[in-house]
């Protein structure tokens, strides 16, 4: 088992099976350190100190989490990701629903459903031109999605 402090691995612990259990991951000095720990942290081999609780700094609010989840939910579909990729890589950074349906080998109503989800999430803009709808990516929303993952 690897123990992490922040994002960096700090110690490698071997698993020792114990009769009647699957394995006991805390062995040797780390088990003793855990038993003796006070105040929510314990010492690892080499003198490093690990924190046992989440940090309050850098967290997002409930509202921010809900907004991020809505964006991620909208793009959490392989067809929608393909549609975004097709629109983003098109010549004018926009595409007609008729061309998109052909490109993903789905019916126009199915593609329109997926595009509507992306429009509702604020990722795409829709413009009616005659009988067809054209879609364009809203660049700020793509940046918002990328920022969530940073």
What is the succession of H and E elements?
EEHEEHHEHHEEH
Strand order of the largest sheet: 5-7-6
Number of helices: 6
Helix content: 40-55%
What distance separates the N and C termini?
Answer: 26 Å
Poorly predicted spans: 1-40
Shape: elongated
Mean pLDDT: 73
Strand content: 15-25%
Largest sheet: 3 strands, antiparallel
Task: Kindly state the number of beta strands.
Answer: 7
Rg over CA atoms: 25 Å
**What class do helices, strands and sheet pairing give?**
alpha+beta
Question: What does this molecule look like?
Answer:
This protein is α+β, with helices and mostly antiparallel strands and 150 residues long. 43% of the residues lie in helices and 20% in strands. It has 6 helices and 7 strands; from the N terminus they run ββαββααβααββα. It has helices at 28-36, 62-75, 78-88, 97-104, 108-120, 139-148, and strands at residues 2-5, 8-12, 41-43, 49-51, 94-96, 124-129, 132-137. The strands form 3 sheets. The protein has a 3-stranded antiparallel beta sheet with strand order 5-7-6. A two-stranded antiparallel sheet has the order 1-2. Strands 3-4 form a two-stranded antiparallel ribbon. β1 (2-5) and β2 form a beta hairpin. The model is unreliable at 1-40 (pLDDT under 50).
Keywords:
disordered N terminus, two-stranded antiparallel ribbon, 43% helix, 6 helices
Kindly summarize this structure in a few lines.
The protein has 150 residues and is of the alpha+beta class. It has 6 helices and 7 strands, in the order ββαββααβααββα. A hairpin with a 5-residue loop joins strand 3 (41-43) and strand 4 (49-51).
């Amino acid at each position: 088992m690897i123990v992490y402090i922040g994002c960096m691995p700090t110690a490698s612990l071997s698993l020792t099976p114990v009769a009647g259990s699957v394995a006991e991951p805390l062995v040797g000095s780390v088990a003793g350190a855990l038993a003796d720990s006070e105040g929510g942290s314990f010492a690892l081999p080499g003198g490093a100190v690990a924190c046992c609780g989440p940090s309050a700094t850098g967290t997002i609010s409930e509202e921010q989490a809900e907004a991020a989840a809505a964006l991620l939910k909208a793009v959490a579909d392989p067809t929608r990701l393909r549609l975004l990729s097709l629109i983003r890589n098109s010549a004018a950074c926009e595409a007609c629903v008729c061309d998109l349906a052909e490109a993903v080998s789905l019916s126009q109503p199915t593609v329109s459903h997926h595009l509507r989800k992306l429009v509702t999430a604020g990722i795409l803009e829709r413009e009616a031109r005659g009988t067809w709808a054209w879609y364009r990516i809203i660049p700020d929303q793509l940046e918002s999605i990328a920022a969530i993952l940073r």
